[in-house]
């Protein structure tokens, strides 16, 4: 089905425990009156020895295939360099997610796993999806 109006926003869940565990949620919404499809973010489970969270595995796998990109700048406007995290599995693409009109899909992104954060405010840009269904969002996020 053709994408008519997918939008994205970045949200910061309450109750964050610190910079190392800081995460955001990318919320993809179908604001049209027709169903829309987008890449399924489920990329399988990490191996038992994986040292990070399942959300970090999902995000790292999506990034390794170009389906998810992150850009982070600090308060001075300098780009924050990401940590290199390699996945340990070969994922299989699953059927796309169909979003009904008004429906949303959330993707948790553990920013603190990918960046050495310190308390402060950052500008975060996130893009997600395949070429025809890519969505992007930007937000100022404050790490406590």
Note the main attributes of this structure:
globular, 2 helices, Immunoglobulin-like, single chain, mainly beta, 3-stranded antiparallel sheet, 144 residues
Give an overview of the whole structure.
The protein has helices at residues 54-64, 111-114, and strands at residues 6-11, 24-30, 36-38, 68-73, 97-99, 104-109, 120-128, 135-143. The protein is mostly beta strands. It has one domain: Immunoglobulin-like (Sandwich). The strands form three sheets. The protein has a three-stranded antiparallel sheet. Strands 4-7-8 form a three-stranded antiparallel sheet, covered by helices on one side. Strands 3-5 form a two-stranded antiparallel sheet. The longest helix has 11 residues, at 54-64. It starts with 5 loop residues before the first strand and ends with a strand.
Give a short overview:
This protein has 144 residues and is mainly β. 10% of the residues lie in helices and 34% in strands.
Strand count, sense and barrel status of the largest sheet are: 3 strands, antiparallel
Strand order of the largest sheet: 1-2-6
Strand content: 25-35%
> Average pLDDT across residues?
91
Stated plainly, the CATH topology is called Immunoglobulin-like
* Annotation, overall tally of beta strands: 8
CATH class value: Mainly Beta
**Which descriptor suits the 3D outline?**
globular
What CATH architecture label applies? Sandwich
| Helix content percent band | 10-25%
First-to-last CA distance: 41 Å
| Helix and strand run | EEEHEEEHEE
- Count of separate structural domains: 1
Uncertain segments are none
The chain-level structural class is mainly beta
Q: Count of helical segments?
A: 2
